[in-house]
Request: fold
Amino acid sequence: MASSDAKQALFEAIALMGKAFASPRRLELLDLLAQAPRSVEELARASGQSTANASQHLQALHAAGIVTRTREGTRVVYAMAGEDALRLWLALRDASVAHLGEVERAARDYLGDDVETIGREDLLERLTKGDVVLVDVRPEEEFAAGHIEGARSIPLPELERRLAELPPDQEIVAYCRGPFCAYAHEAVRRLKDTGRKARRLEDGWPEWRLAGKPIQAH
Amino acid sequence: MASSDAKQALFEAIALMGKAFASPRRLELLDLLAQAPRSVEELARASGQSTANASQHLQALHAAGIVTRTREGTRVVYAMAGEDALRLWLALRDASVAHLGEVERAARDYLGDDVETIGREDLLERLTKGDVVLVDVRPEEEFAAGHIEGARSIPLPELERRLAELPPDQEIVAYCRGPFCAYAHEAVRRLKDTGRKARRLEDGWPEWRLAGKPIQAH
DNA sequence: CAAGCTATCAAGCGTTCTATTGAATAGCAA
DNA sequence: TTGCTATTCAATAGAACGCTTGATAGCTTG
Reply:
């Protein structure tokens, strides 16, 4: 029957998008792109895979319409295709956390002991009052591509060296890529070791941006 | 490095959920479950695949936490796991429509000429005013499992035979499983052939329910 | 236009996924 | 118990996928 063929085609087309989310390596690339656009080589290096392999995965993501590609001189820069794509990735991630115990177990193994958090609304309120210091502990390029308004950039590896920049008597809030990024956890632990009051934002930059909170772009 | 192993595990766990959405056959089952819970055999028949095959796919969906299973005597009834799962499925479907031209092409082939639509808000308003007749053209079991408040059930194959039930001078709105379900399109075309004023709801039952509009459940 | 990067292509190989088949199991009814 | 039905399990063959390797194409710079 012709109509059933057409219906099949419809589901096949939708499955193309599902397949895009079906490989861990691809998801890792996507997670990086949720922070900032990057070239193939940067992505390959950051995710520890070969350039050719990363290129293949990126093409798969591109074919599914999840990422865009732009030639910039000799490099090709990939980026999230838009808010829809970002929203979908976060929804998938959150759903898998909610439904699959393994995700939480893997996360706990990875993140270590949990640290105190602060929600988006609370943080925003305290930022406007000015009684909290907000630190972006992601790599500098990601900060440069966009960050929470009022944050200062101190990549995690530089934290100890630049402790003097942080007022010792004010509370510090650290944030990074998202709830499963270890940077903020680690930053808070180290800050507490120096006797400061510190918490981490409960999620990260992409969630903040999607929530429509004040940002500093580009 | 241990931390990178743990991070891999995290992405692998999330990819489990992605894989669940990576097969057309599975998506077809999911689409049916978005309307109403069903037994393995019913699902297999409705989607035109063997029972064993459907069972395998349903187990995969269950392992990903997208559907629930309940034993009912000799049968096993599967159902959507919750609003989260439904929301994720609809989000994936809509994203693939937005990003992949093929989906739209496949849809057009399947649905035929487009017919006039009415939005959720408009329909609700006119329903309360009482100047429109709402018809659910899905199979009867799906209507029985839940439907829009105030709708009457006339499955598409019975439409001609039961035309007398519909007032000839009032506008008729037909709805079915969703924007890619052909029933409502076809119903509107047939109603117009009889000289009536008819439109279709722009999407379907699951979208209505998720939007929190008035429903009649079970 | 040649050299040097970056990214993609093409082929190959091992692994995983899918659908089919036939056998096994669980609940129900006589 | 013995059938009967609905579902799952197990084994298998074929297709699709994922990663690697080496070659190719595009762009920039000297």
About this structure: Chain B has a mean pLDDT of 93. The two ends of chain B are 53 Å apart (CA to CA).
